[in-house]
User: Fold these one by one.
Assistant:
Number 1:
Amino acid sequence: MTAPGWEAGYAAPAAGGAEPAPAPVPAGASYSAPGYGGTPAGYGVPAPGWEGEPGPDAPWAAATGPEVPYPDSPRGDDGVRHDPPGTAGGDPYAAAPQEDPYAAAPQGDGRTCVACRAGHVDTDGYCEHCGHAQPRERDHLEEELCSVAAVSDRGLRHHRNEDSFAVSATALPDGSAATVAIVCDGVSSASRPDEASAAAAGAANEALLDALPRGADPAEAMHGAILAAAAAVTALAPPTPGAQNAPACTLVGAVVSRGVLTIGWVGDSRAYWVPDDRAALAQRLTEDDSWAAQMVAAGLMGEAEAYADVRAHAITGWLGADAYDLEPHTASFRPDHPGVVVVCTDGLWNYAESAREMAQVLPADAADRPLHSAQVLVGHALDGGGHDNITVAVVPFAGPAQDPAEAPAGPEAESEAEPQA
C-alpha cells in the first residue's frame, strides 16, 4: 500500500525489503527549484509547478520590478525594508526575544536549606545540595491570644507532626468572655493521623464557637464538640471498610467561662490544673482511656507499675471510623483561686506525668505569660528526648466569677471524673 500523495514519485518496496531503483526521469523535464540543478535522486518526477519556467498564469508571474517583500513599508534604494530591530512592522522573527524556555522554570520551592545554607529546596522538601529534609509548616507551630497560648512541635524522633491544636475566644450572651483550647494527637498506627488530628481540632473548635455564643451550657457544648470532631475524623475513612486502618486521633479540650472550667476528652491526652500559688495542690483533671488506666481502675495494678508496662499507652478510646462506642468524657470545675490549665498530648506528659511534676516544670508566671510557659513545657519534653510529637495549650484562669450567688468550691466540686493528684 503506497502512502497517499506519493503514487507518482515513490514505488512500494519490493519483496524482501529491497529498495526500488529510482524511476526514470522523463526526457526534457527539469527540477528548477533554487539550488537544485537537476532532479534529486529518488524522485521519479519533478515536483508539480516546477516544470520549466513559470507560465503566464502562474500567481507569481505578474510581479514586475524589484522584489518588494513589505509593499507598504519605507524602503531603501534596494527596495527592501530596513526597520530597526524590534520596531513595529519589522521582521517578527528577527524581533522575537530569544528566551531560554528553561530559564524561568522555578527552582524547587525557592527556599534555602536550613542545614547547609547553600542548596535550594526541591518540591519534595529536601535540599538539592545536601539532601537534608526541611522543616514543614506543622513541624513547629505557635499561637497566642490574649487569654490562651499553644505550641506544637514535631519532636526529635518523628518525621512529621501528627498533633494539632485550636485556640480561640468568643463572647457569651451576657457579654462575658469564653476561652477555648483544643489539643488532638493523631494515632500513628492509623492512616493519615496528621489529617485526623487537624480535622478533629478544627471541628471541635467550630462547634464550640457556634454553641457558646448562643448560651449553650459549656459541658453540653463540649460534648457536642467532641461528637462533631468524631464525625469529622470518621469522614476521612476510605469508602471500603477495612481497606486500611481508618484515620484516628485523641482529643482533649478546655473552656474557661464565667468562673467555670469545663474539660472534655477522649483518649490519653490530658488536662492539668496548676494553681498560681504553688503551695496549693495541683491536680490532673482527666482520666486516660488506656490500658494502664483500666488496670489501675480495676485494682489489678498500681499506677506506677501499670504505666511502666509496655502496654501502658495502648488507648481504649479514640475518634475515628473504627472506634468503639464513643463515650465523650466531660467534667466541670469551679476553682476558688487563680491558676492555669495545661492541656497537652502524651508527648509532654510522658516527661511530667504527675500533677506535681507538671507544676514544677511550669513557670511561676504562667498566668501572665502563657506563650512563654507553653514554650518552656515543649522545651522540657525536647530536653527529655522528644520521643513523640509535643503539643500543649496554657489557659489562664482568673478565679471565681464575682457573683455572690455563686458559692466557690474546690476544683473537683462538679467533676464527673475523679481528678488525679
Number 2:
Amino acid sequence: MNDRNPEQRLSVCPGCAEPLDPTDRFCGACGHALSVAAEPGADRPTVALGTEPAATWPAPAPRDLSAQTQHPGDLPSPDPATAAGGSRAAQAVVEGTATAAGGLAAAGIPAPHGPADPASGEAVRHDGPSSAEDGEGNGDTAGDYELAAPDPRVAAVAAQVKVCVACRAGRVDTDGYCENCGHAQPRERDHMERELESVAAVSDRGLRHHRNEDAFAVSSTALPDGSPAAVAIVCDGVSSATRPDEASAAAASAANRSLLAALPRGTHPQQAMMEAIVAAADAVNSLAEEPGSARDHDPHRNAPACTIVGSVVTGELLVVGWVGDSRAYWVPDDRSAPPARLTEDDSWAAQMVSSGLMNEAEAYADERAHAITGWLGADAYELEPHTAAYKPDRPGVVVVCTDGLWNYAEGAQEMARVVPPDASGRPLHGAQVLVGHALDGGGHDNVTVALLPFALPHEGAGSACGAAGDSPSA
C-alpha cells in the first residue's frame, strides 16, 4: 500500500512528469518509485580556509634563490574585473543524493515510522509527553509518535545509490546507464574532483575528446615546524604520443610523492619542486622502457609524453614549477589589484613572441601556436624544469591549469574575471566554475584546474616577492 498520506500523494512522476493515479506505487512510464518524492540536489558546501605562519627554510644548495625579484603586484593594473559565475554542464557522477527513505524504498526496505517493539517489530504508539516535551505535548514529536532513531540501513543503502548526471532522478544500473532516462554515465576518469582543506581540483574530459588525458594530484603536508603546505600538480598528456593518459597519471603521482617526501624534511619548496619535476620525468620515461610496450611492437610509435605544472603554497611563500604549456596564474582576492601569469609556455607561440618575430595575438592565432617545445618523456630533447618562488603581499588564489581552461581565459585579466570572487574560501566550487566556463566555451580539450588559496600569516607579511630561476610573464 502507499505509505504517503493523501495530501502527500503525487499527481505527476518526479522523474518523467507522467500523470499518476492516486493508487500508483511506481510510475508506469519510467518505473520510478513513488513512495518518497526525490529531493532536488543541493550545492555542496566547502569549508572556509586559513593558513598558519610558515617556516624559514635553509637555502637549497643546487639553486640560488636570490637571483632576482618579481611580484605579481608589479604588473600594470587591469581594468576592474567583473565576477563571473559560469554555468556548468553537469558531468560529475553524484553519489548519495537520493533521500535516505527513498534509497530504502528502492532497495525494498520499508522506512520506520516510530520506535519498534523489540518483540513484534511494530511501531509503538506513544500517547504521553516525551523527555523533550513539556506537559502540553510540545516537543520533537511527529504526531503522536516519537521520532525514530537513525536507521543504520539508511546510510548503507544511500552510499550504494548512484544518481544519473543527466536527469538527476534515475538510478544508475550496473551497466552504467540510467534506469530512468537511459543516459550513459561518464567513466570514472571522465570527470574527477578532489577537495582538501587547503586545495581542490577538478578534471573533465571535455565535449570533443573520447577520453580524459589530463591528470592531477592534490595533497597537504606539514613543514618541519608544523606549519601547513598545500600541493597541486596538473599534467596534460600529449595526444600525439603513445598512452598520453598513462603519462599524465604517472607524472602527477610521482611529482606529488616527491614533494610529500621532501617538504617535511625541510627541503626548500623551490628545490623540492625542481626535484619533483625530475621525478615525474623519470616516471614518464619508464613507461617507454616497459617490456611489451607499444614501441616494442611498432618502433615508429613515439614514447608516452605529457606536460606538467605544479604549485606549493605555504604560509608566506608561493612556488610554481613547470615544463610545457600548462600554466599557473595568481588572482588576488582584491580584484582591484593586478593578477599575473606565473609561468612561461614552452611552445612555438611563446618562442615567436619572446624572439620578437610576432606579437602575442599573431602568434596564438597561428595553427602552430600550441606546438610544445618542452615536455616530459623519453623523446624530449632535454629536460629543462622551470621554477619560480614568490612572496605575495596580499591574499589570493593560485590557479593551476591545462590549456583546456586557459584557451578560454588566456590573459591574466581574463582569468581573474572568470575566477569566482569567493574562490579562496570555496576552492572546489571555484574549480567547478572554471571547468564549467571551459565547457560552456566549447570544451574542445580536456580541462583540468586546481585552486590553492593563499592567506597571509599576519598583516604586512612579505611586501616583496622573490623569484628564482625563470621569470614569469604577465
Number 3:
Amino acid sequence: MRSLLIVLALVALVLLIVGVAVETLKFLLYIGLIVLVASAVLLLLQRARSRAQR
C-alpha cells in the first residue's frame, strides 16, 4: 500500500511539472510571436525612413 502511494505521488509530481512546462511554453510562444511582429514592423519603418532620406 505504501509503494502505491509513492508511485501515485511521483505520477502527480510528473504531471504537475509537465503541466507547468506546457503553460510556460505557450507563454513563450506568444512572446516570441510578439517580438517577431515588432521586429518586422521596425524593419519596415527603418527601410521607409532610409528611402525617404534619399
Number 4:
Amino acid sequence: MVRTAAVRWAGWIVGVLVLGLLAAWVWWRESDTAARWRFEEAMATYCGGVLAYEKGPLFEGLWPGLELPNDVALGPEAQFCLVGEGRTAVTVALLRGDYRDQDLERILRGSDSTLIPVPLTGGWRGTANGEVVRVLLPCQGGTDLVSVTVGSYSSLNASDEEEARRKSESGWIGSDLYWARFATATAAKASAHWDCKAEAGKPLRALPAITGPEQTSEADGTCAGLPFARDHRLDTVQETVVGAGALTEMCEVGASEYFNARYEFSASFGPYAARQRNQGGQSNHDREAGVNKYGGVWASARCPGDAVRAHFTGFVPAEAATVWRPGEKGKETFGLPAFREFAERSAKRHGCTDLRLPAQ
C-alpha cells in the first residue's frame, strides 16, 4: 500500500511538472512579455547591436516580433541589415578620415526616388526623399562621423503610395516620419556604441513639406536668386527646402513650353560629396572646378567639419541652345551664371569657404 501510494504521488508530481513546463512553454511562445524578451535578446546582437529598437524620446521603438531576415557586416565598423516583413534596408557605419578606405557606394546607397530631398529639422544633419532617410552624426573633435541610411521602407505598392502622398498636405506618409525618427535614434545609439562623442539633435516632430513644381517667381528655396530674367523661356522650378543640415541640395529649372529637359543643379557635402565626385568621372575627381563638353559643370568648396570638399554640379540641357519658337533666335545664357549663383548661395548657407568655380 505504501509503495503504491508513493508511486501515485510521484506520478502526480511528474504530471504537475509536465503541465508546468507546458504552461511555461506556451507562455514563452505566446505571451507579449516573452515575445518582447526574445526580441530584445535578438536585437542585442543583430546588425552589430547598434539599431535603436528601444522606446525613447527620439523614437517610439520597433515592435516585438519584427522579422530580422538578413545581417551582413560591411566592415569592422559598418553593418547592413534588413528589418521587418517589408525588408526595410538599414546601413550603419562609422566613417573615418577622408573615407578612401570605405565602400561609400554600399554604405550610403543610391536612391531611385523622383522626389527632391528635404533636410531634417531639429538640429540633425540629414535628408529624406520619400524612399531613403539619411543621417550623419559628427563625432566631436575631428572629422569622424556616424552614417545611417534607411531605405525601401514603405509597405505600400507604387500606385497606392503615390495616391497617399497626393492626398497628404505635406507630401509625406506615416512611414516617412517613423523611419526618420528611427534613423536619428540609431545614429545616437551607434555613436555611443563606437565611442563617438556626438551631440544628438531634438526629436523629429515633422518633416518639411515636399514642394512640387512652381513658377520661377515663387522660388524661395535652393532655386531662389537665380538669374531667371536672362532667359524668357524659363517658367518652372522644383527645389530643395533650405536647411543648414542638408546633406544634398537640388534645384531643377524648366522651360515647359519649349523643351522637356531641365537645368539641374546639385550640392553634396561630406561623404556624399566624395561619392558624387567619384561618380562624376576622372576629370571631376582630379579638378576642383570645370566644364565638360556634355553640358556638365562642377565646383567645390571647403566646409567646416568635413574631411573632403563639398561638390557642386550642374547640367545644361542641349535643347536650351537650340529650341526656340518659330521666328525667335537666341543662345543659351542661363546655365553657367545660374550654376555659379547656386553654388555661391549653397556654400554660404553651409559656412563653406575657398569656393572654386568654373571660369565664366
